[in-house]
Design brief:
The complex is a heterodimer of chains A (629) and B (197). Chain A has helices spanning 5-25, 30-41, 53-74, 77-82, 84-109, 113-124, 128-138, 144-170, 173-179, 194-226, 229-250, 254-265, 271-295, 299-304, 306-330, 335-344, 351-361, 367-395, 409-412, 425-435, 448-456, 469-474, 490-503, 516-524, 535-548, 553-575, 587-605, 616-628, and strands at residues 417-421, 442-445, 460-463, 480-485, 508-513, 530-532. Helix content of chain A is 70%, strand content 4%. Chain B has one domain (4-195): Flavodoxin domain (Rossmann fold). Classes of the chains: A mainly alpha (629), B alpha/beta (197). The interface between A and B is medium-sized, with 16 and 20 residues.
Chain lengths: 629, 197
């Protein structure tokens, strides 16, 4: 049955759609869904996919490269520089301590020191794919936990270069040459002296930076001018592939190279286009990657020595977890952030596949050792997301920042309840103003530091993901009069909108939106209470500009009110027009076209001249006209 | 020298040639404070304390405004409602404004002839301004007859200049020594012979 590419594709797609939608319905991360799908379609359960799973794994690793590129796009060079302490401090401690402990562990079990060293390297690395995908999915990238995880993973990406350079030194030179099954990891520089290698690496990093500025951006400008959508997709792929190729050629992890490329391009005007182009491909490839990991779990190996494998698996996860917890402690993370970090990075990562098969190629590892470790790696990748969920659902609510703190009844028993989701810059102003009127909003926020502070200030705060129905219910959505959604994340607003529409239609939902495009979406979902975050502020600024230029303040005030009304009307008019949503590649261009339309309408409307109130000159003119007739 | 406060209320000052001409020379005149209410409080959010301090610092107050629907523009009513507080401007302890002088300076589109029992506005300007007069009285202030620039639709530049000169001379006169009861005898301050040179 297997063999046909189409059939394989269908198997993967059905598996993904089925399992991920179930995982999502259960409130689990999509990663778990993909892994489960992989196990199901793999050789040991349904048997749709045979041993080609490993090849797919290699192919799908490109998804990780893309993910790092996209993460790089979101980190501007300045921020990257600010993170250097976290990257080398946290990353260094984590990798160093994990390697040391796992080396001791494997030597104690009875492995040869060389083997133990290679294994300890593989064990020290965590899975960027799983950890980052989960963190981004939950929108936790900006929390201390998110940035710490990212810093550690980035350090691992850097250190893996040196590991790949070091492993050949462990090999018995004669055996390595005769064995013949050396991995494709061999690269251009392997035969060169170390000093020259370093130089080449530095040179290629420089090349990426310079090329980003002077080659890639001009190329993208040319491509955008052609107005052919698929060319931009091609260009985006070319960038990622090109950088990966160069990096692989000089022996750097392609993911690290792609990350650098992303950082370089994060300041360019194409940031958003690149993001929206690559995002869906990245997600699919990562999904494929997770499924391949699931499919590669070799149940025969497990069946042979189940206790050893489970024992080693638990030992490794515990060991990694403890090191991560201590790392978090040294860097003064709060308890709940430490726990999140502990569980999200406790797995062995995808680099282990590379390192282990590389070492196997050099005859450092034996077949059964490698099989066992590959299984352990895949199992650890599958289990840690589940442990993370247990942590979030059952452990975190009890310790650290609690999901809720009971407060005296008189506060809760307010007849008109207001729930405020998100207490950032936008939400905090709302909260302060409401409080100054004696209205104590119940606040939902996912930043534990902020939650602590707010609780100290006497607010009733619920900690966690506001799109979870149970949390909203705990916060009292059933008896709420109004919910304010002050986050700028459209996905959160949409999820809450859905919950309110379906389950609590009596609750009034008032939503902050980033821009008119988000506003369209929410309007089309049937919510009229849309507040664009920049409309009033920009008009206020424009009003002050005109006032400084000599226009009268009261007239400007009236015109601002007119303008807002006109703009709100046109927003509602345009929201109902069909949009070419799939065409978001050249969205910037479309936006310009729309702006032009608005400006043109403004001009025709003649904003200021239209208002003839209190203008005696106007009356005079009309009177003269009638007299002349 | 007596200090003059012009409380100016015009929602569209930028379009009013007449008021621009009237105000032009007074804006920077010594001991005259020109206070543009619509420009200060475009949201009608009047700073009561500031307004009361201004009133206390001045001897002669002028409500300067166009006549809209036989009264002042909305902000002047708002100003009265908020600033003239009980027990500050009136009431048993409200004596702050006592003995100050106050009057209206108004501009109207219709000419003086239409504001009388035979004209189509039926009532005289002085009758329409009764609420202002009574407000002044309740606050213990001397209320003078209005200075009115009327028939603004037909004014020539020369007329306008004449009015502006009259307005300035009126303020000069009030800043010096004058007898309030003597000034109260006419219908319009414009009619004072001293003003027309």
């Amino acid at each position: 049955m297997t063999g046909s590419i189409l059939f394989e594709a269908i198997v993967f797609l059905v598996g993904a759609i089925f399992c991920v939608s179930i995982a999502k319905r259960l409130g689990l991360s999509s990663v778990i869904g993909y892994l489960l799908a992989g196990v199901l379609i793999g050789p040991y359960v349904l048997g749709f996919i045979g041993n080609e799973g490993e090849d797919i794994l290699h192919f799908a690793e490109f998804g990780v490269v893309m993910m790092l590129f996209l993460i790089g796009l979101e980190i501007e060079p300045k921020n990257f520089w600010n993170m250097r302490k976290a990257i080398f401090g946290m990353g260094g401690i984590q990798v160093g301590a994990t390697m040391l402990l796992s080396y001791l562990l494997f030597v104690l079990i009875g492995f040869e020191w060389k083997v133990a060293l290679v294994i300890s390297m593989a064990v020290a690395l965590s899975s960027t794919a799983i950890a980052m995908q989960t963190i981004k999915e939950k929108g936790l990238m900006t929390t201390t936990f998110g940035t710490s995880s990212f810093a550690i993973l980035l350090f691992q990406d850097i250190i893996v270069i040196f590991m790949l350079g070091f492993i050949p030194l462990l090999a018995n030179p004669n055996e390595a040459i005769t064995s013949g099954n050396i991995d494709e990891q061999t690269n251009l520089l392997e035969s060169l002296p170390i000093g020259f290698q370093t130089l080449a690496i530095l040179f290629s990093v420089g090349l990426v930076i310079v090329a980003g500025r002077y080659l890639i951006v001009p190329m993208l400008r040319k491509v955008a001018k052609t107005d052919v959508r698929e060319l931009l997709i091609a260009a985006a792929f070319l960038i990622v592939c090109g950088i990966s190729f160069i990096m692989e050629y000089v022996g750097i992890s392609p993911a690290l190279g792609a990350f650098l490329g992303g950082v370089v391009l994060s300041n360019s005007e194409f940031k958003h286009e690149l993001e929206s182009t690559l995002e869906p491909f990245k997600n699919l490839l990562l999904g494929l990657f997770f499924m391949a990991v699931g499919a590669s779990i070799n149940f025969i190996v497990i069946a042979k020595s189940p206790f050893t494998i489970i024992g080693v698996l638990i030992a490794i996860i515990a060991l990694k977890g403890i090191v991560l917890f201590i790392t978090g402690h040294i860097f003064k993370l709060k308890l709940d952030q430490k726990l999140l970090l502990t569980f999200s990075l406790a797995q062995i990562g995808e680099f282990a596949f590379v390192l282990l098969s590389f070492a196997f190629g050099l005859n450092i590892l034996e077949q059964d050792q490698m099989d066992m470790l590959l299984v352990i790696t895949a199992l650890s990748m599958s289990i840690t997301p589940i442990i993370s969920i247990i942590n979030e659902r059952f452990i975190l609510p009890k310790i650290g920042t609690k999901e809720s703190i009971k407060r005296p009844m008189d506060h809760i028993a307010k007849s008109q309840k207001v729930i405020l989701v998100g207490f950032g810059h936008f939400g905090s102003t709302i909260g302060r103003f409401l409080r100054s009127h004696g209205v104590e909003a119940t606040i939902l926020d996912f930043d534990s530091n902020r939650v602590d502070f707010l609780r100290k200030m006497g607010f009733e705060v619920y900690y966690g993901d506001a799109t979870r129905l149970d949390l909203l219910e705990a916060a009292g959505i059933a008896e709420a009069k109004i919910i304010i959604c002050a986050t700028n994340r459209l996905s959160v607003s949409k999820a809450i909108n859905k919950i309110v529409k379906e389950k609590y239609p009596h609750v009034e939902l008032m939503i902050r939106t980033k821009n008119r495009y988000d506003a369209y979406e929410l309007l089309n979902l049937g919510n009229e209470n849309i507040y664009r975050e920049s409309l009033e502020t920009s008009l206020k600024l424009a009003k002050d500009v005109l006032s400084k230029m000599g226009f009268r303040k009261y007239t400007l005030n009236r015109q601002v009110e007119n303008f807002i009304k006109y703009d709100e009307d046109s927003l509602r008019r345009l929201a109902s027009e069909p949009k070419r949503e799939e065409d978001y590649i050249f969205k910037a261009k479309q936006e310009l076209e729309q702006q032009e339309k608005y400006l043109d309408e403004d001009f025709k409307r003649g904003v200021v001249e239209f208002d003839n109130h209190w203008d005696s000159e106007h009356i005079k003119k009309v009177l003269e006209k009638t007299k002349n007739q | 020298m007596k200090k003059v406060l012009i409380l100016f209320a015009h929602p569209k000052f930028e379009k009013s040639k007449v008021n621009a001409a009237l105000i032009e020379r007074l804006k920077d005149k010594a001991h005259v404070t020109f206070h543009d209410l619509y420009e200060h409080y475009p949201n009608f959010h009047i700073d009561v304390q500031h307004e009361q301090e201004l009133l206390m610092q001045h001897d002669i107050i002028i409500w300067h405004h166009p006549l809209y629907w036989y009264s002042s523009p909305a902000i002047l009513k708002q100003w009265k409602d908020l600033v003239l507080e009980f027990n500050w401007a009136y009431g048993p302890n409200g004596k702050v404004l006592h003995e100050k002088t106050i009057f209206n300076v108004i501009t109207t589109g219709g000419s003086r002839e239409v504001y009388c029992s035979e004209g189509y506005n039926t009532f005289t300007i002085n009758e329409f301004l009764r609420p202002f007069e009574q407000t002044a009285k309740l606050c213990g202030m001397n209320y003078l007859p209005p200075f009115a620039v009327m028939g603004t639709y037909q004014l020539t530049n020369e007329d306008l200049l004449n009015y502006a000169n009259q307005y300035e001379r009126l303020i000069d006169l009030l800043q010096g020594d004058f007898n309030a009861t003597q000034l109260s005898s006419c219908f319009f301050l414009n009619d004072l012979e001293i003003l027309s040179v």
